[in-house]
Amino acid sequence: MAEILENPSSYQKLQALPKPKDLLLEASSVSFLVLKIASRCNINCTYCYMYNLGDNSYLSQPKVMSDQVVDRVLENSASHAQKYELSSFGFGFHGGEPILAGHDFFTKFVEKANAKFAILGITPFYYMQTNGMLMTKKLARLFNELNINVGISLDGTQESNDRYRVDHKGKGTYTRIIAGIQNMEENRDPVSGKINLGILNVIDIDSDPNELYEHYKERLNTLSFDLLLPLANFDKLPPKPVAGPFANSETPYADWLLALFIAWFHDSSKNKPFIRIFDTIIRQILGGKASMDSLGNNDKGLLVIETDGGIEPVDVLKMCGDGFTKQNLNILSDSFEDAFKKPLVATYIQNEKHLCEKCKICPILEMCGGGYLPHRYSSLNNFDNPSVYCRDLIKLIAGIQSLVIRELPEELKTRFSLRELSYEKITNQLYGN
After folding, report:
1. What are the distances in angstroms from CA 262 to CA 156, 210, 241, 257, 430?
2. What is the dotted CATH code of the domain comprising 22-285?
3. Residue 167's beta-bridge partner residues?
4. What is the pTM of this model?
5. Which helix (H) or strand (E) holds 336?
């Protein structure tokens, strides 16, 4: 199947997709750090795992990461990358709202990192996730000059976004986020039209997926956006649709995503946006190596460094309880290798080795990987559960696989014995219905 990816001309609608940067290495190494450079936020999203899902540890954190912590982060990262012979190393600026750390923070950090890694012949790369409300034109130019890729959190149309993404007075944030996005527009490459900007969208199950797609493509001219399932687990179930076409569905999130996928898949226009979750699943179907934090079986070479230097596993696990992610480790005194010895860190990084029995026998395990670790949590069984979105993931993957296979030439389907997956057969095998 790998040759299909190498020869995309053998089929019509499956376009050659840009390969994402591979950050996932063996469990004994880390190649990407999420840096909580600011522990407070200028807005108050109702679903935020940092502040509104039960974890209050941010209250004991300094508001901004200190120079001392930054210097130790860079020292440990450089020595770790050299030890494990990594060719690149990534830093993700996060919060809270990372821009609250101040303009000078980013300049000093990137200059120090570039100098330190250049000596070793290792390439650092940078990413920031922001709500965009503090994005001025001056700051947008700075991020472009520093080659910091920017992700802005926006949940679709104004109606959808302002349902959950509100400020501390309960007012919607859409118009202010759009202003931040527009401030980045002048940094588009005049020839290619590209810009170091992607949108991160938490799914509002009551929104119209086709309207959302047109909004990003036509209204915002978005080159790239990604879709996240709402953070949920067996103690905090996902929001159910209130009305509309998905209201009575057993798998509303799969149905919503498949509706959007069909619009995207059949879009042959030049300004078709990149959507990571769809790209990942298609690559998996065609035999390519593709994985992301919430899908796939590769180890996750990622750690979080808190504002005070605390070393932790992925931050979304904060939704599992107050202080849940605390490991009693700090970058000022401990190494990344120390973190890998912690059970919670190891469970996250080697997600595929900590699966429930249903996941182990699932025919799409290689593509799903058991789903996102936070989605498998319950206070009763810890992570020994399938994803709370298990049926949605099965239907989504089976639905995309079927649509992709139908577009392949008969000769290829015969050569590789390709058959369409059946959601009903898989769920009957796992759940007996």
Report:
1. 18, 9, 20, 9, 27
2. 3.20.20.70
3. 43
4. 0.90
5. helix 336-340
